[in-house]
Amino acid sequence: MRLTWEELGWERVAPRVGRQRLPDWDCTVGLVVGEGAALMIDAGSSLAEGAKVRREAQALTGHRVTLLALTHPHFDHVFGAAAFAGARIFTAGGSSAVYEDGREELYADAVRNGLDPRAAEEAADALVRPRDLFVWDTWRLDLDGGVQVLLVRIGEGHTGHDLAVVVPGDPTVVFCGDLVEESGEPQAGPDAVPSRWPAALDRLLGLGGEDALYVPGHGAVVDAAFVRSQRDALAERFGVSR
User: Fold this and answer.
1) pTM score, two decimals?
2) Alpha-carbon distance 62 to 3, whole Å?
3) Which helix (H) or strand (E) holds 31?
4) Does residue 77 surpass a pLDDT of 80?
């Protein structure tokens, strides 16, 4: 018998959509369930964390997760990806260099933020190298059972390679990655593109609309008004004219 979202500590956001806030960095992973396929959104901060959410997703769906979308190449979102053996992995177009050549920096960032060095080294060594499933604009996935998902390359903002995941429905659910954060001020590291961040949030709002639920990379699910307020705050913070 399949377990429920609540029994596994997941939050049910919409009929076939859920998410979990992982410990330590309060990072969100998401799950969209079709009749014969399931899409995981982000993979956690270590191989152990990735394996945990993979097992839980299988318990929820009754089958393996065969699709994985990575919203942006930061360690707390991608270091668990290698635990999804055999999955088709989607990333934003232009991000391949980070996965190929940026492993040392991802490792260093993970350790700086408190991940055990051995776990960080293991995850960096095993980090997937996406090959051909790069989203340059919009990629539509059909998970069967009438469940469709849009993968959208938002462009630049929190990083140079931000990917959103949109699940149309009632309500529509938009997984924002770290373009939106609720549990703290949005983090702008050296790979952020502040001048384009507010416009990226405008695009998110255009994709979801006023009645959508917006799932941030960190924190509680928010509404369009919150995203709009964060857009305005980022424009003021970075001196971006509107």
Assistant:
1) 0.97
2) 9
3) strand 28-33
4) yes
